[in-house]
Amino acid sequence: MRCLTGPCSYKLREKASVFLTELHPADTPEARAAILMKLRKRDFDATHHCSAWREGAPVRAQGSEDDGEPSGTAGPPMLRVLEGEALTDLLAVCIRWYGGTKLGTGGLVRAYTEGLQGAIAEAQRQGLFQTIRILRTGHIRVAADQAHLPFSVLGLFPDAEILGQDFDGSNAILHVRLAPERTAALDHAWRERSRGGKVVWE
Known about the structure:
The structure is a single chain. This protein is an alpha+beta fold. The chain folds into 2 domains: 2-131, Ribosomal Protein S5, domain 2, CATH 3.30.230; 136-201, Alpha-Beta Plaits, CATH 3.30.70. It contains 5 helices and 12 strands. Strand 2 and strand 3 form a beta hairpin.
C-alpha cells in the first residue's frame, strides 16, 4: 500500500466543464472535514465538490460522496481508482465547474476517473507517494528455561523484527513482527522446532 506525503492537483477540461482534482494527505475524519471545508470556501463558485477517501493500513474505513452529481457517477468511480492504486490515508476531491453541456452518466464517470488518474500521475511524477509496509505482531510463549529456542528459529527469518522479550512467572514471551505473507512459514518452523508450539498472532 502507499500513502501520500504532500498535496498535489490536476486540471481537466471536458466539454466546457472544468475538473480540478486535488489529493491531500488525511488519515482522520477531522482532517478530511477540514480540507473539504477549506476547498468549499476557496472554490465557492464551483458546482460540485466530489470526494473519495481511504484510511488505515490495512484499510479500516473508506467512503465517497457524489455531492449532487447523479448517484454513482463521481465519488464511487474515484474510490475505485484509489482501491486499484492501493492508496490510503488520503482524501481525493474533484471540484467541477459546470460548463453548460451535460456529459451524461458515462461521461461523468469517465471525467471523474480521468481527473483522479491525472492527479495520481502528477503525484507520482513529484515523488509524493510512500510505500507502507504492513506487518503483523505476534508472540511466542515458552518455558523460561527454553527462552533461547525462539531465537534459533527467528534466525531463519532475517525480515522478522524482534520487539522484545518479557517473563510471566515461569514463562518467557518473545514479541515479534513480520510481513503477513511470511507468518505461515514462521508458524510451521516454530511448530517443527518446538514440537507442537504455536505463534499467537494479533
